[in-house]
Amino acid sequence: MTGDALVIAMKLRDEMVDHCSQGRPNEACGLLATKDGEVVKVLKMANAAASPVRYALDPKEQFEAYKLLDQDGLELGGVFHSHTRTEAYPSPTDVRMATEDVPYVIVSLAREPAEVRAFRIVKSEWADPGGDILEVPVVVEG
């Protein structure tokens, strides 16, 4: 994140989109690691929900990913998942399940090429089922 934008290299964007495409027919998911405000690593994870309409990060993989972030001096820069048949916009389930103060990146596979958008989900308390959805510009470099 640089300012109010999510900055990602084309190669890493393509890696994330590829992971999402390979997850079909289910949604795919993972985390984005940042350093100095720029995405430096895509942490691909299994969708523990194994569902075409929702995702869940595997708790063991998530714990390992957070350890890796700490070890490598990186920050959690985003959570990503795919929408296999709908637009790249948070669903009510996405909003309800949001628990991190980072951009939520959605890769829509509904059309070619895939659409990548990012959103901050702002809640007064993380347990709240609703929240405000604020779009974050995605800047693809290279």
Task: Note the overall shape.
Answer: globular
Largest sheet: 6 strands, mixed
Considering DSSP H and I runs of 4 or more, what fraction of the residues is helical?
A: 10-25%
Indicate the CATH topology.
Cytidine Deaminase, domain 2
Structural class: alpha/beta
- Any low-confidence stretches, pLDDT <50, length ≥5? none
Proportion in β-strands: 35-45%
List keywords for this structure.
single chain, 142 residues, alpha/beta, Cytidine Deaminase, domain 2, six-stranded mixed β-sheet, two-stranded parallel ribbon, 3 helices, 23% helix, globular
Please provide a brief summary of the model:
With about 140 residues, this protein is an alpha/beta fold. The chain contains 3 helices and 8 strands.
Task: Describe this entry's structure for a reader.
The protein is of the alpha/beta class and 142 residues long. The protein has one domain: Cytidine Deaminase, domain 2 (3-Layer(aba) Sandwich), CATH 3.40.140. Helices cover 23% and strands 35% of the residues. It has three helices and eight strands, in the order βαββαβαββββ. The strands form two sheets. A six-stranded mixed sheet has the order 3-2-4-5-6-7. A two-stranded parallel sheet has the order 1-8. The protein is globular. It starts with 5 loop residues before the first strand and ends with a strand. The model has no long low-confidence stretch (mean pLDDT 95).
Could you outline the blueprint of secondary structure elements for this entry?
Blueprint (H helix, E strand, L loop, with lengths): L5 E4 H13 L6 E7 L2 E8 L13 H14 L2 E9 L8 H6 L6 E5 L6 E8 L9 E5 L1 E4 L1
Parallel strand pairs: 1-8, 4-5
Antiparallel strand pairs: 2-3, 2-4, 5-6, 6-7
